[in-house]
Amino acid sequence: MVSETQQLGEKMSRVNIPSVSVENFHRPKGVPEDEAFESVIDLKNLNVFYGNFHAVNNVNLGIKKNSITSFIGPSGCGKSTVLRCINRMNDLIPSARVEGQILYQGQDLNARNVDPVEVRRRIGMVFQRPNPFPKSIYENVAWGARINGYKGNMSELVEQCLVRAAIWDEVKDKLKESGLSLSGGQQQRLCIARALATNPEIILLDEPASALDPISTLKIEELLRELETDYTIVIVTHNMQQAARVSDRTVFYSLNEERQGILVEAGPTEKIFTNPGDSRTEAYITGRFG
Ligand code: ADP
């Protein structure tokens, strides 16, 4: 019988995930495999509490620049919480308290002099449910540029963002129509276009395709692979096949005995799915728990 791991492995080779296996992974001598990349975000001893509940316990992680990293793991293990820390969205949850460091290009994002609005401009976010504003398609994208103080040719910028988000052809003749008139998959790509309009360097996506049909899901995945050359992308997904199809690196989170979220293992996606270093990862990806 073919195991799920083997099936995933085959699927990955079919979708041509770039190989970053140990043999051809260039790294300076003596540096462990997982540290041999330029990280744009570094989480150091990250702990998150909601009131008295210790939701995320001591996460240490580097996010590789210009690549796609997926967060996987059972429900409630803190994937979204960690994601939200990366652009200070947890500031908006009154009971949330964040300890540790979130370094963006070496700068601590929680430092006093850091403006959270600027953080969210540089580190954009796309949510599970597409949330276009009840405004025209054009205005949805232009809004992103305006909050960024954009003074150039707005129509050109709107077009560029819609092209980059792979939705231009579908909407170019109806830019004045409401963003809400689009299908779910189109709305999500519109939200990605809106995020691109603030000229971010990092895009965080929290289960962006979980409310979408399979064809829209594939379109979003294809789009992410295209954006990867210019952006650093982090995606939370409950769908392991999606992580295998779309990401270069995968981070597996789980729960400890106190039901706190912990990072179990991070590494090249191919390795995590075919040769994980931790038995808990293996149990999860082979469907034995979670
Ligand atoms: P995941 O994304 O892996 O499903 P979450 O980050 O959403 O996990 O949640 C981690 C833990 O924190 C869960 O126990 C969840 O119930 C709790 N949690 C998440 N958001 C809040 C919140 N706003 N208030 C209180 N607890 C929360």
CATH topology: Rossmann fold
Bound ligands, each once:
adenosine-5'-diphosphate
Using the 3D structure, state the CATH architecture.
Answer: 3-Layer(aba) Sandwich
- How far from one another are the termini? 22 Å
Helix content: 25-40%
The CATH class turns out to be Alpha Beta
Instruction: Look at the helices and sheets and give the structural class.
Output: alpha/beta
List the helices and strands in order: HEEEHEEHEHHHHEHEHEEHH
Give me the CATH superfamily.
P-loop containing nucleotide triphosphate hydrolases
- List segments where confidence is low: pLDDT < 50 over at least 5 consecutive residues: 1-32
Major beta sheet, strand line-up: 6-7-8-3-9-10
Strand content bin:
15-25%
**What is the count of DSSP helices, taking H or I runs of 4+ residues?**
11
Largest sheet: 6 strands, mixed
Give a count of the beta strands, DSSP E runs of length 2 or more.
Answer: 10
What number of structural domains do the residues give? 1
Spatial extent as radius of gyration = 19 Å
SSE map:
Blueprint: H1 4-14, E1 39-50, E2 53-64, E3 68-72, H2 79-86, E4 96-104, E5 107-108, H3 116-122, E6 123-126, H4 137-147, H5 154-164, H6 168-171, H7 184-196, E7 202-206, H8 214-227, E8 232-236, H9 240-246, E9 249-255, E10 261-268, H10 269-274, H11 279-285
Parallel strand pairs: 3-8, 3-9, 6-7, 7-8
Antiparallel strand pairs: 1-2, 1-4, 4-5, 9-10
The structure holds adenosine-5'-diphosphate.
Question: How does this model look, in words?
Answer:
The protein is α/β, with parallel strands linked by helices. The protein has a single domain (4-285), classed as Rossmann fold (3-Layer(aba) Sandwich), CATH 3.40.50.300. The protein has 11 helices and 10 strands. The strands form 2 sheets. A 6-stranded mixed beta sheet has the order 6-7-8-3-9-10, with helices on both faces. It has a 4-stranded antiparallel beta sheet with strand order 2-1-4-5, with helices on one face. A hairpin with a 2-residue loop joins β1 (39-50) and β2. α4 (137-147) packs across α5, α5 crosses α7 (184-196) and α7 packs parallel to α8 (214-227). The chain is globular and about 55 Å long. 42% of the residues are buried. The model is unreliable at 1-32 (pLDDT under 50). The structure holds adenosine-5'-diphosphate. Residues 50, 55, 73, 75-81, 93, 95, 261 line the site of adenosine-5'-diphosphate (ADP).
